[in-house]
Each structure stands twice: as C-alpha cells, then as structure tokens.
Amino acid sequence: MLSTIAKRQFSSSASTAYKVAVLGAAGGIGQPLSLLMKLNHKVTDLALYDIRLAPGVAADVSHIPTNSTVTGYTPEDNGLEKTLTGADLVIIPAGVPRKPGMTRDDLFNTNASIVRDLAKAVGDYSPSAAVAIISNPVNSTVPIVAEVLKSKGVYNPKKLFGVTTLDVLRASRFLSQVQGTNPASEPVTVVGGHSGVTIVPLLSQSKHKDLPKDTYDALVHRIQFGGDEVVKAKDGAGSATLSMAQAGARFASSVLNGLAGENDVVEPSFVDSPLFKDEGIEFFSSKVTLGPEGVKTIHGLGELSAAEEEMITTAKETLAKNIAKGQEFVKQNP
Ligand SMILES: NC(=O)c1ccc[n+]([C@@H]2O[C@H](COP(=O)([O-])OP(=O)(O)OC[C@H]3O[C@@H](n4cnc5c(N)ncnc54)[C@H](O)[C@@H]3O)[C@@H](O)[C@H]2O)c1
Ligand SMILES: O=C(O)C[C@H](O)C(=O)O
C-alpha cells in the first residue's frame, strides 16, 4: 500500500498509477487478460497469481514494452499476500469452466470455495481494492465475496463488481449481425445477472425497437445463451476465454478510469443494488457510473417493453435463488 501511495505522490501522472492483481492469471481467461492489462497505460504494477504457472506468464507478459512492472506468484512464499498487497483493483477469473451439458450453477460446488478463499485473502491484504469477479456462477460468487468481506468487517458495496460485460459485447455483436451494421454503433444495455434467463437485453432501448417477433425472440435467446455456443464449439475444452478477456479488460479499464476521476464512465455490472432490494434481491446488474470511490451511481432500468418486464420478473426469481445460495454457502462454510 505504501509503495502505491508513494508512487502516486511522486509520479508525474499521479492519479493514473495503479496496481492491478489478476487471480487465476494462468488460465484461459487469465493469460490474455493479463496481456491486455499490460497494454493499459494506467497500470504501473501488474501482479499475477495462480496455483500454477503464474511466474511463467508474468515473465512472458513482462517483455511487452509498456511502462509497468509484472510479477508472478504461486501459493509458495506468501504469493497471494505479495500479489494483493497495495492492489487498487483485483480481477478474479480463478475457477473451473463449463463443459457441454453443464449450467453455470453446476460449477458452484468447485468454484464457491475457490472464490471464498481468494475473497478472504482480499479481505486480509487488499481490503480497500475494487474487486471484479469473473468466476462463475457470477450470480452466486459475487454474494460469496460480499459475505466474506462482511465477516471481516471490510465490505464496501461500492467496490464489488460482477463482470457482465461479455453479455453486453455479445448483445452489440449479435444485433449488428442481424442488422448488417457496425457493432461499435449498436450499444445495447443488458441487465439482471449473468446466466441464461437472468441475462435481460433491453433491445427496446436500442436503435431497433421494432424487430419482427421471430427475429427478436431468436436474438434474445442468442444473447441469453451465447456462452453455450462457445462451450459447445470448444467441445469439452472450456468456455469463452478470448472474448471474455476482452470484456474483462474493458471493464477493468472502466474501473480504473473511474478511480482516476474521469467523467461519464458507465458500464453495466452486477452490484449490490437498491433497485429490487425491497423484493429481497440484493444484487442486480444495471448501468453503473464509475467514479473515484468505485460505484458512483446505479442507474434504473428506464422504460421497458412488456416483453422486457416479463423477462425481468423471470430473472428476479432465479436471481433470488442464486444469491441466497452464495450467501448460505458462506454461512455454512465460513
Ligand atoms: N463472467 C463471465 O462472463 C465469464 C466468461 C467466461 C468464463 N467465466 C468463468 O471464468 C472462470 C475461468 O475460466 P477459464 O476459461 O479461464 O478457466 P481455466 O481453467 O482455463 O483457468 C482457470 C484458472 O484458475 C486457476 N485456479 C484454480 N484455483 C485457483 C485458486 N485457488 N487460486 C488461483 N487460481 C486458481 C487455475 O489454475 C487456472 O489457471 C470459470 O469459472 C468460467 O466459468 C466467466
Ligand atoms: O458460458 C460460460 O460458462 C462462460 C461465460 O459465463 C460466458 O458467458 O461465456
């Protein structure tokens, strides 16, 4: 922490020097994500951690000529402590991916304890860092991290994020394919959570409000189940890694831009949200303005079509169960 503070005080680009930690850095997502974070000029210190191979990934990435240090650690020699100490942003893609026929919830039994243990280390060594969770099932792993940080008395709801950016990228891409347009000019807001029916694209707020019903239905289904396309195509070798690395790097970059005090940094994210708290749903993804303290503003959903209202109702039922499952896991397995 001290070294980060000193760096900020004496560096000429004082507010743009950040330490970023990637936990699970040797994996299918972790490696390209680490590469992309090395290319981010706000990152001055990149710390990579994995139970295997992270020093090798760090050595490799460190040859890329941007002005940041890269270190890699495994559990030996207090590697997790060294990775996390002084981190401003911790990105967590550690955990197993799906195989064909599995739901994200099927990963819970393996990934819940991985994420819980990493969250404990975050609570101990980087309690004021922003934390971005990629590990699935995101609808449950984010509540797990919240419960762990609460139990350590360091939970800051403004700094915990479930990364749902891949749904947003897919929505733009798939809509542009249907319309024959440039995805860069097809923004789509996606809200809810990150699995199947909890992924709710708000196409009525896009440029294309009046898609034919069969086109609309197919597009919504593709956005909700886009992850399955990749899992099926990889045929047992994992799920989305490269598109996810791009999505994770975009989200991380937005968090850093927010921390640096840049204006109008808005990304959808699965956060501790007031939107449906009165219905018992503590986390929900919607557009979030990011600022120096993390979450600055959580935006409402805006005007919805009847079909979207219906999807939100369905999403809330599943989300309530996914969130409770994560919270209950930490209660039973502290
Ligand atoms: N949020 C999203 O949109 C999104 C998208 C794609 C994948 N995912 C999820 O991301 C996770 C990782 O996917 P992947 O394809 O990179 O998997 P992977 O198996 O290729 O990599 C996972 C890495 O995590 C490491 N790991 C396992 N336990 C660890 C621990 N305790 N500490 C540190 N590292 C540990 C492994 O060694 C491995 O290198 C999966 O759960 C997957 O479902 C989420
Ligand atoms: O589909 C998966 O299991 C990985 C990820 O959540 C995705 O959306 O690609």
UniProtKB/TrEMBL annotation:
GO terms for molecular function: L-malate dehydrogenase (NAD+) activity. Keywords: NAD, Oxidoreductase, Tricarboxylic acid cycle. GO terms for cellular component: mitochondrion. NAD(+) binds at residues 24-30, 50, 111, 134-136, 244. One of its GO terms (biological process) is malate metabolic process. Substrate binds at residues 98, 104, 136, 170. The active site is at 194 (proton acceptor). It catalyses: (S)-malate + NAD(+) = oxaloacetate + NADH + H(+). The keyword NAD applies. Gene3D superfamilies: Lactate dehydrogenase/glycoside hydrolase, family 4, C-terminal, NAD(P)-binding Rossmann-like Domain. Pfam families: Ldh_1_C, Ldh_1_N. Residues 164-330 form the Lactate/malate dehydrogenase C-terminal domain. Its EC number is 1.1.1.37. The keyword Oxidoreductase applies. Residues 19-162 form the Lactate/malate dehydrogenase N-terminal domain. Belongs to the LDH/MDH superfamily. MDH type 1 family. Homodimer. This is Malate dehydrogenase. It comes from Komagataella phaffii (strain GS115 / ATCC 20864) (Yeast).
